[in-house]
Structure formats: structure tokens, C-alpha cells
Amino acid sequence: MELLLFDGFNGLIQGAFYALMALGLSLIISLNSVINFAHGGFMVVGAYLAFTLAPYIGFWPALFAGPILAGILGILVERTLVRSMYGRSDPIYSLLLTFGFALIIEDVVRTIWGAQGVPFEIPAALGSPVSTTYFFLTGYRLFVIAAIGLATIALFAFLRLSRFGIRIRAGILDLETVSALGVNVYLLRSVNFAIGTLLAGFAGVLAAGVLQLAPTMGDDVIMATFVAVVVGGIGSLFGSVLGGLLIGLAAGITTAYYPAASDVVIYVIMAVVLIVRPRGLLGQEGLFE
Amino acid sequence: MSATVLKIENVHTYYGKSHILHGVSMEVAEGEIVTLLGRNGAGKTTTLRSLSGLTPAREGRIEILGHDTTRWPAYKIARLGVGYVPEGRRIFPNLTVLENLAVPMTRPGYWSVDRVLELFPNLRERRDSWGRQLSGGEQEMLAIARALLVNPKLLLLDEPSQGLAPLLVHEVFRVVASMREQGISILLVEQNARFGLEVADRVYVLNDGQMIHSGPAQELAKDEVRVRALAGAGASEA
Ligand SMILES: Nc1ncnc2c1ncn2[C@@H]1O[C@H](COP(=O)(O)OP(=O)(O)OP(=O)(O)O)[C@@H](O)[C@H]1O
Ligand SMILES: [Mg+2]
Questions:
Q1: Which of A1, A46, A166, B21 could form a disulfide with B13 if both were Cys (CB 3.0 to 4.6 A apart)?
Q2: Does a structural domain hold residue A95?
Q3: Which of B78, B92, B105 sits opposite A174 (nearest CB)?
């Protein structure tokens, strides 16, 4: 029972990461119409930048600085590379472009910070277990869940309450009409891409404290992130959250009973969902319903 | 002689390789209501899409409020003071009525969310309903309200009466006519020729991407046979 709790909790944390990554990826797929294979790369960049800055500015400021820098990098990439993909109906171009960019990020990170994994220091107050029975419930792990929960709520509040967020939701279904109403859709797409990469950077910093930093840490997450988006339903942000949590939990629980299958189970779930409900759990219902 | 709000000269527009508009020219003067008639597929929507920058003209020249907007992106044209009510309304189904009204970039001017809700009391009652829950009439009102929030000097309306019950057509008619008092110039695309000719000062008729008629609306309104010949069989039915 304790093992199941342990693996289940691990799965929940894993799922929370997938959900956060999937949210950003889903925003980018929906509004920028780009399948961003470099999403894992932005996660890595956010994590390493926070790692580099933390000794100078401290953990807490670095927790925000890393993601913000990942967001700024996102704007630069959108303006220079991704923008040239708009209007091309064949997704293969954006796929190749972002895939190439993901490889470049990985190599640059390896060149600057080395191929070896490095530990990311977290504040001592967060490091210790909060309970002796449930040794796996460290303060940091609870903090990660709370932080991801808050980030998710903040994103939904932004999309629901701010004018900019409302325009993003409108643009997801009909960008052309948004532009005909005087909204600078180029800016809208840039900022949206930046929000997506910022969320990836935030996931990266949080993940660095659970595991350790490695140039390949994005690779392990990106496939699961895509699975989460597909399972939840492309175009539905709630779906991305649901899909992420679902596959994370499923992988965790599978680990408790049959560890060898824990990597495969998420693809099995995806296959089943695609057969039973091709549009994904919440796909095409639009947002917020 | 009042100022020209819109002037298009010899416009050619394509969708990919298909050549749709073959040298279209027309004008709208300040405070004028101009109706554009034509059969299905004549190129009426394409003309409005060229004007609003959604499908830019490949050749020719479009001048709006004294600016050469031929190559401008759609959002800049809207900000110049062009309101667009697209064919099929294009309400955002995943947004509430109030959220739909939050999308446009509001230029300073008479129209505000409060004012458009005054103009369309139905929308005020339904302000928290999702766009997709609205009836056709409510969607049309919302599309007009949304375009008015741009505080347009020129309003482009693409078949606002389409699919509406006669009573609602009348309501749209009333609103369009009242825009004239606001000094808003209107370019109206209509299948419903009776409605289109009744409100308009002047009329153009498009066929196969070319203008085949232009003149005072009164003149054509009297000649139903001519309307039928120019704009198709369905055009004269109200
Ligand atoms: N996106 C598109 N791609 C290719 N061809 C198109 C596209 N949209 C319209 N067309 C073609 O362009 C021509 C003009 O279409 P348009 O929509 O401008 O006509 P319309 O006069 O508005 O007709 P309706 O009264 O049916 O709305 C038609 O032959 C149509 O098939
Ligand atoms: Mg049309």
C-alpha cells in the first residue's frame, strides 16, 4: 500500500509536470499553429538559466528569472524563425524547423554547461520530508505541486479575465476575425508563444529541483507532453491538464505493479483514446465549457 | 460633393491560383450607403475581404480615408476606422457575449460596450451566454455590435439579413439606416435585393468578378426585371 502511495504520488508529480508542459504546448499549437518540438528545449533553457543565476540572485528570484528568460527567448525565436512558418498549410515545415531548433538548444546547453548532469540546490527548508511515515512527501515535492497548481490557475484567470487572454481564446478559433477587429495578431501570436515557452521554463526550473539538470532532460518530457495534449484533445486547455495528470498517474501506478510497462502505458492510453474518441477527451469543445 | 471614404481601382484578387476579381472599381462617399449585389459566387465577399485586408488585392489600388491601404495588414485597416461584419457572422462560439465585445480594438468615439448594449437590448439580457448559444438574429446583432466598437467611419456588412426572419431583417434594416445619422458610411453586400436597394443611395452589381452595373439605388429598385437579370433569380425575393 505504501509503495502504491509512493508511486502514485510520484505519478501525480510527473503528471503535474506534463500538464504544465502540455498547457504551453497546447497554447502554441492552437494559436501559432506550430507543432513545437523545441518545447522541451525551452524547458531545459529555463532550468539552466535559473541554475546559473541562483548563486548570484538566490533561489526564489531565479525561480522566476529562468522562466522569464525562456519566455524572452521564445519571443526572439517566434519573431525570427517561427513567424516564417505562418501561412504554410503543411505542418512538416514547422515540425522540421522546431525539431532542428531542439537539437541546437541541446547542443548549445551541452557546450556551455557540460554533458554531465548537475544538481540544482533547493532551499534547505524545502528539502526535508514533512512526515516520517510518508518519507517521499518532501516539502519541495509539495511545493512543486502547489506551484504548478498556482501557475495553472493564474493562466486560466489570465485567459478568462484579461482582454489579451480573451483575444487569445478568440484567436484560437478564428484568428482572421480577430485581426479584422483591429487586433495586432502578430503581437498576439508572439506573446502567446512567449507564454508557452515561459511555462516550459517554469516546469524546467521546478523539475531541476526534483531530478537534476541534464541537457537531455527535455527529451524525456517532450514525448509525454505530446501524448498529454493528444489524450486531452488538441485545442482544449482543460484537456491538456487532464491528459497530463492522467498519463502521469497511470505511469506512476503502473510502476508500482509492473515497472517494465511504465514507459509504454502512456502510449497505450493514447492509442485507446484515439480509437474510442479520436478528438481526445475534451477536444474540439472549445475552451472553458 | 462630399469626401471619398473608399475608392478601389482595378482590383484583382486571387485565392491561390484562382483569379476571382477581374479589375473591380468602386467608390463610397462620406455618409453614403452603398449596396453591392450579385449572384452566388460573383465575388462580393472577396471584394470585402480585399478591402479589409484579409485577402489582399494582388493588383490595383485600394484607398480608404485617404490612405493607400492596398498592402496593409487587416488589423491596421480596422484601426483606421473600418468595421467588418463578416459573412456568417463569425461570432466567437467559445466566448460569452461580453467577451465577444472585448475582442475589438476600440478606437475612441461614440460607441462603447454600454452604448451597443443599449442599441441591442437583447444582447444585454444574454451578455453571459456563450456565443454558440445565440440565435441567428442575436449573432447578427452581436456581429454588428462588435464591429461598431471599432468606431468605424466605414462599415462593411456581408449579408446581414441572411437566414433571418422578416422581423429581424427589419431590425437590421433599422440599425443600418440609423448608422447614416452617425456619419458612418456603409458598404452592404446583400442577396436580399429589396432590402439592399431600399436602404442604399447607390448600388453596384458584380458578376464573375467584374462590375456590370452601377447607379442610383432608386432607379434599380423600380425595375425588378432588371434586378433579376443582373443579380440572379433569388435576388429580388425579400
Ligand atoms: N477560400 C477560397 N479559395 C478558393 N476559392 C474561393 C475561396 N472563397 C471563395 N472562392 C471562390 O471565389 C468566388 C467568389 O466567391 P465569393 O465568396 O466572393 O462570392 P460571393 O459573391 O460572396 O457569393 P455568395 O453570395 O455565395 O456569398 C467563388 O467562385 C468561390 O467559389
Ligand atoms: Mg459571399
A1: B21
A2: yes
A3: B92
Given pLDDT bands bounded at 50, 70 and 90, which one contains residue A176?
very high
Q: How far, in Å, are A18, A25, B82 from residue A228 at the CA level? A: 7, 10, 42
* Candidate from B21, B45, B49, B54 with most ligand 1 atoms within 8 A of CB, to mutate: B45
Question: Under 8 Å CB-to-CB from B203, ≥6 apart: which residues?
Answer: B34, B35, B36, B37, B196, B197, B213, B214, B215, B216, B217, B220
Average the pLDDT over each of B24-38, B44-58, B86-100, B209-223 and give the range with the smallest value.
Answer: B209-223
Do the domain assignments include residue A193?
yes
Does some domain include residue A183? yes
Per the structure, the complete domain to which residue A167 belongs is given by 22-219
**B4-236, what's its fold?**
Rossmann fold (3.40.50)
Find chain A residues with C-beta within 8 A of B99's C-beta. 166, 169-170
The stretch B90-97 carries a mean pLDDT of: 96
- The CA A27 to ligand 1 mean position distance, Å, reads 31
Q: Domain count of chain A?
A: 1
Cβ separation B103–A185 shorter than 8 A: no
Chain B nearest-CA distance from A183, in A, is: 5
